[in-house]
Amino acid sequence: MSAASSQRILGRDPSTGRGIAITIEGELIRAIDFLDHGEKQWLSAGFIDLQVNGYAGHDLNGLTLDVATVQALCQAMLKVGVTTFLPTLVTAPEARLIAALRTIREACAQHADVAAMVAGIHVEGPHIAPEDGPRGAHPSADVRPPSTAEFDRWQLVAGGLVKLVTLSPHWPEAPAYIRHLVKAGVVVSLGHTSADAAQIAAAVDAGATLSTHLGNGSHALLDRRHNHLWPQLADDRLTAMFIADGHHITPAQLKVMLRAKGHERSLVVSDVVVLGGMPAGKYTTPIGGKVELRADGLLTMDDGTGKYLAGAALPQLVAIPVLVNQVGLTLGEALALLTAAPGRFVGGRGVLAVGQSADLVAFRWDGSSARPEVVSVWLRGHAAR
Q1: 10, 21 in Cβ contact below 8 A?
Q2: Catalytic one of 33, 271, 296, 359
Q3: What are the tens digits of pLDDT across the range 244-260?
Q4: Cβ distance 1 to 7 under 8 Å?
Q5: Helix (H) or strand (E) holding 379
Q6: Distance CA 246, CA 248 (A)
Q7: How far apart are CA 290 and CA 220, in angstroms?
Q8: What residues pair up with 146 in beta bridges, in sequence order?
Q9: What is d(CA 59, CA 54) in angstroms, rounded to the nearest whole number?
Q10: Is 112 strand, coil or helix?
Q11: Partners of residue 240 on adjacent β-strands
């Protein structure tokens, strides 16, 4: 990947609606000017997605993974405006996790564009709740207690790329495991859990700082007073990741949860899986087994009930209309949840500022359509599409 020498990009600032001109030299933003120029496309920092399992037929969690799949996934992510993401590996036998971690490391070493986009790896599981509901689509046979020795094996083969781990804090081993990971510089998130308030508090005391797709990965029916949601919403030490695709949680739920956490403790992920961007229909996947994808992007287990979701099939950018038109955020507030907010967990990316990496997305959105149109993307100053 070679960066352009010097270029000027015009668009509209999503926070103010004013014309904006961004000058790029090499890989960095060198100047930001506000001026009237008539360009109608919106211009933003590139989207940052901390939870990507696959997309457009490219699966990180298949039975095998190769470097070509990782690179193809990166290209697919650029097409939907994502310039930074965490490849996400879910509950699986250790040997398969180790092989996938090694492959992602090799992809970063072999391809500069992959290294630029992959800010680390998110391992979601295998230390999650084993029961139906909280376990979600993760295979029950591979759920197991936290093991610091296993984590050390992951990190060794990944060359330190494991940056985020999701687990359920109900395991007795959880607090010690969390402390071990935090000491190693890894962000720990709570998810796929039915833990009680005391177990959640112990995990946060040990250093957990995120909640994975809060509002999902739980029983279909919850005790109205004693459940895993209230303690996580109430604890200001936790930042919540939300799937704002219009399916995983209702707009009313999302609005209330955003008010509880505050925008400073909230961010948006896609949790998109291999079937994202694919035609509607019934599929069989390594994770989830038989699933059904609807034309509107809802992905459920194909068990005759449609009761349990099987991941997400819509890219992160669909959150923009949901957040603006159904939750009531401004466009600037919505974009912050897709850029600067997740960027805090990957080294401060996602900010339009002089000296920052020139990872940008230009898109069109009329304020009413269900999906913004990505026009152009720049990765480290290079026009990626």
Answers
A1: yes
A2: 271
A3: 998 889 999 999 999 99
A4: no
A5: strand 373-379
A6: 6
A7: 19
A8: none
A9: 5
A10: helix
A11: 211, 266
Note the pLDDT tens digit of each residue in 154-171: 999 999 999 999 999 999
Q: Between 67-79 and 94-110, two packed helices, what is the crossing angle to 10 degrees?
A: 70
pLDDT above 60 (res 4): no
Alpha-helix residue ranges (DSSP H) falling in 187-265: 197-206, 229-234, 251-261
Let me know if 271 is a catalytic residue. yes
Angle at alpha carbon of residue 22, lines to 16 and 26, rounded to 5°: 150
Cα 91 to Cα 73, 137, 141, 328, 331: the distances in Å are: 20, 9, 9, 36, 35
Determine the pLDDT at residue 3: 45
- Rounded to whole angstroms, the Cα distance separating 346 from 344 reads 6
Q: Are the beta carbons of 274 and 285 closer than 8 angstroms?
A: yes
Task: Quote the strand ranges of 13-91, DSSP E.
Answer: 19-25, 28-34, 42-45, 47-52, 54-55, 58-59, 82-90
Give residue limits of the domains in the chain. 46-349
**What percent of the chain clears pLDDT 70, i.e. is strictly above it?**
96
Residue with tokens 């995120």: 210
CATH class of domain segment(s) 46-349: alpha beta
Q: What amino acid is encoded at 345 in this protein?
A: F
User: What does the pLDDT look like over 207-219, one tens digit per residue?
Assistant: 999 999 997 766 6
What is the reported pLDDT for 220? Answer: 63
- Cα separation, 134 vs 262, whole angstroms: 25
Each residue of 38-80: pLDDT tens digit?
889 999 999 999 999 999 999 999 999 999 999 999 999 999 9
Residue tagged 């093991």 (tokens): 147
Helix (H) or strand (E) holding 189: strand 187-190
Q: What's the pTM?
A: 0.95
Our CA angle for 310, 311, 314, nearest 5°, is 130
Q: What pairs with residue 124 in β-bridges?
A: 90, 166
